[in-house]
Amino acid sequence: MSRSERILVTLANGVQGGAVAREAARRGFSVTALVRDPARSTALARLGIELAQGDLADPASLQAAHAGVSAVVLQVPIGPPDMVCRLAENAVAAAKDAKAGVILKLASASRPAPCEEPSFVANAAIETMVRSSGLCCAILRPTMYLDNLLKPGVRQEVANGMFQVPIDASQRIAWTSAGDCAAATITLIENKAYGGNHLISGPDSVTGAELVRALSRGLGRSIVYRSEPLDAFESAVDAAMGSGMGKRVASKFRFFQAHRDEADAILAPAYVDQPGLEGFRPTSIEDWARTHARAFDEAITPTSR
C-alpha cells in the first residue's frame, strides 16, 4: 500500500485503537482517527493524525470519516452481541461505499465453533458479516493482552509485587500486547495481505509462574502470581464498572475454566510465522515489561518503596 493512501482507525481513543493509529503514523501513512471526542485526542493530533468526530452508531458520521480512505482498521467495542453487530453493520456499509480494504481487529481470540459465551458469539457474527460483505478483508485476533497489567488498579498491584487474574496458574498463555497487534495490523496493510486469519500471540507460551518470573526480570522486582476466584473477580468488576458488568467480563474466564482444552487452543499457541506478516516479530514478556518499567515504578505505593 502506498504511503499516500489513507488509513481509517476506529475506536482510536482506546488503548488498542490508539496503538494502531500511532503505528500507522510512525510508518509514514496518512491516518484518520475516528473519535467521539476530539478534545480527548490531542496526543493523536500532535502526531499529524487527522481526527474525524463520529461514532459507529452514527452512519452519517461514518460516511464522512471514510472519505478518501483506502484501508480501515475496524474495531468494535465489547458489549451484547446484538448491539455489537449493529455497530459492525454500520461500519461495513461505510467501508463498502468507500471500496476500502478492512482489517477486522477483534478484541479477543475467537472460538471457531458456535457456543453460548457472548463475546465469542459476537466475534463469530462480526467475522461472518465482514467476510460475506465482499470486502477485501483479513482477521486479526489476539491471545491475551499484557496491557491489562497497565490498568491503574492492576498496575499498582503488580508494582507492589503481585499479579492476580481469574485464570489458573497452570494455564499456558502466549501473552501479546497492543503494540504487537498494532504492528501486525499495519504490516498486513503494507503488504496488502487480505484474506488471512491471523492469531497474534507472543513468542513464549507461559504458565502463571513463568509469566511473573519474566515480569520480575523486566521490572527488576519480585512479583508473585495469584489466581483470583471468579466470584471475587465479578464483585470487583461490579464495584468498579457497575452492577452486571462483572458477569459479562467474567463470562469468558468461566468458559476457559470449564473448557480447558478450548483455553489451550485459544490462548496457549506461541506465535508462528504467517503469510502476509513477513518481518513481524512479537515482543517477549521481559522486553515488554522493561519498556513499561517506568509506569510501574510510578505506581509503587510509598510504604513499599
Helix and strand topology:
Blueprint: E1 6-9, H1 15-26, E2 30-35, H2 42-46, E3 50-53, H3 59-65, E4 69-74, H4 81-98, E5 101-105, H5 118-131, E6 137-142, H6 152-159, E7 162-165, H7 178-190, E8 197-200, H8 208-219, E9 224-227, H9 230-241, H10 245-258, H11 260-267, H12 285-291, H13 293-299
Parallel strand pairs: 1-2, 1-4, 2-3, 4-5, 5-6, 6-8, 7-9
Helix pairs in contact: 1-7, 4-5, 6-13, 8-12, 9-10, 10-11
Number of DSSP-assigned strands = 9
Task: List low-confidence stretches.
Answer: none
Helix-strand string: EHEHEHEHEHEHEHEHEHHHHH
Q: What is the oligomer described by this structure?
A: single chain
| Structure classification | alpha/beta
Number of helices: 13
Do you know the CATH topology of the largest domain?
Rossmann fold
CATH superfamily of the largest domain: NAD(P)-binding Rossmann-like Domain
Write down the CATH class of the largest domain: Alpha Beta
Query: Could you tell me the radius of gyration in angstroms?
Result: 19 Å
